[in-house]
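Quick check before the chapter quiz. The format below is the same one you will see on the exam, so make sure you can read both the input and the output lines.
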Amino acid sequence: MSDKKTSSCPYFSRNSDCLMITGGLYLPLPEQIKMYCQSVSYRQCHQYISGCEKISNSAPIIEVEKINRRRYRRISEHLNLTLCDCSANPDAKLCDFPASTIDIGMGGLMFKSTKHIAPDTELVFILENNELFDSRLDGRGVVRWSAPDAGNTDFFLAGISFSDNSSKQAVGRGLWSKHNYIS
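Here is the expected output.
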């Protein structure tokens, strides 16, 4: 799969409001939407910059080596996760197995499971009944890596990168509201 750059701001909602703002509402002008929100120049937007400055030191950092290879920083967050292999079951209705997250960020998550999942496997995931999101989060992702858990050989660790923008946006909103942290 090719490595694509985000072509618009991940914090610009379909309702034309800025999700980087908390405790109020910011409605960008049409010129700002065209210039920043809907273009690759979103990182030059004042709201995006000031939001990133606020959160640069507010979340615990996961190992520096891991952050450097990712597009988004992650925070340690343990959530119950249900996974379903779409590769074996395109309808994603018949198989599910429990797992739990180790860390999460806008680009994806790392999880622990009793089942080994091969890289490049497409998964549907469900995060429900947690403090990070207002409601259940259903999303899609692709396993990028998988390895036995060195600390417990009964478990496997794996990393998912989100393949749908709605998951990225929901995780971004959840991280911002709980940790005042986004990228």
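If your answer matched, good. The chain is about 20% helix and 25% strand.
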